Amino acid sequence: MLPLYQPTLTDSYGRQIKDLRISITDRCNFRCVYCMPETGVQWKDKSEILSYEELTYLAETFVSLGVTKLRVTGGEPLLRRGVINFIRTLNSIPGVEDLALTTNAYFLPEYAERLSKAGLKRISISIDSLMPKAFELLTKVNALGRVLEGIEAAQKYNLTPVKVNMVVMRHINDNEVVDFARFAREKGLIARYIEYMPLDGPGEWNRDMVVSGKEIFEKINAKYPLKPLIANHKSETAKRFTFADGAGGEIGIIAPVTEPFCGACSRIRLTADGQIRTCLFSLSEHNLRDFLRSGASREQLRQFISTTVLKKELGHRINEPDFVAPERTMSCIGG
């Protein structure tokens, strides 16, 4: 086991990098319209995907540099065999303070208990509609009932607080904003509303489809008055609210398009094929996989990571005239 050794991993703007998103697969059993194309997806060859042994070695290396929070993502991470043991291994790394996973919940009815016993602390679930027909339109899969079962399983086995994430798109599911808040109240969930970002599979992102965080807040607040929560950390991405009447649940609004929060970003991403992405919207990637496979020492990997973090962008450029969307879609980058 790697000895605990935690200098501060800091970018050129003085931001400490504490959060690592680890994608373990580019594959998914859903085809969410904002994430990947319905057809023609080019999967990475197995040889290009990092093994669990490689992922563990790199996770240890990131933690040795000061990372304390790990989130396992995909694609759909529960599609990959061996994910339970991988979670258990990550949980055993000294210095890991928070271990979470993002999933579409399709496999959670079977996996929730084992994930909990393996040491998973929290879970985020993508669910963009509570209406069966709309859910199928958005995901291309008739699976809403199974996802709802997955949410119940996550709560049953204490993968809490359970966050349910809704990407809000105008004329597609924005009519469910209040219903989603009601769902959170009734089930004691954290409902997080995310502005539609230019990372969609078909490449048809249109600013007119963005429902702003302000508009989302106003819709919910008109029905269920909200009370702001003070952020636990300045790098939090969501503006958080509780219900003023004391009902259970919580509301979070993530507005990267209309209210960018890049200034306090503490995140970095490792794709399933071993590329470091310093920003969700980076136009370049840094090939950590090939450097690792070339026989680089632990110290050389630390230096590579530290140097890469210094290249982290000040912020995304969604609102700039010269903005260019990344070539890779969300499913390839990792949530």
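(ticket continues) Second input and output from the same batch:
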Amino acid sequence: MNLTKTPFTNAAIGNDPEILRDIHLQPVNIAIYEREILPTQTELDHILEQSIECRASGSIAEVTATLRTYFAETIPEQQALLDDILEVLQLFEKSTEISSFRLLLATVSTNMCRRFHTDINDLRLLCTYAGPGTLWLPNEAVNQKAYQGGRSNMDIVANEGLIQQAQTGDVVILKGALYPDANPVLHRSPSIEQTQGKRLLLRIDNNESHNLWS
């Protein structure tokens, strides 16, 4: 299936969750399901006032149990957010056929990964519930020699006008360096420290591969 509406050969982007299955197509290294987030802005603003960090791993049942316990003890009023996270987790399972997961839900106030990079894993899901989304590069914008040489973003990005950014609420699946025959997508975190911004980020990895938290 290919429901994409992007001019970039390495990206599958659409407003149907089925678009996420296109991550397995050979040319594609990023799939984005564009959507409206279910939690209200008031709910999300309230969460950003707190320090959230929930980590969970294992099967869907195990991750779900950990999330329900964390929400009940920490943010019991945020049922809409919990329900949405569980739906996103199920989407990741359906799109990837992964059976063991590693999840992080956290408020973020730093720039995290400043340099465009690839992940040392096979598949990763990102969803920014509040704040700016992940920046990523189409193949046409990448200077691979500069990236492989450890150079800065200024050298890695061959065309700044082609830098792309996922929108708040979008569900994004990224191919990493461990995906078979992958051309992993280069991406980085948005800059928020200068403006004292905050993000609420959901990250889900395949727990069966050599994933890193970074």
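Agent notes: The longest strand covers residues 101-108. The CA atoms of residues 113 and 214 lie 8 Å apart. Closing as not reproducible unless the customer responds.
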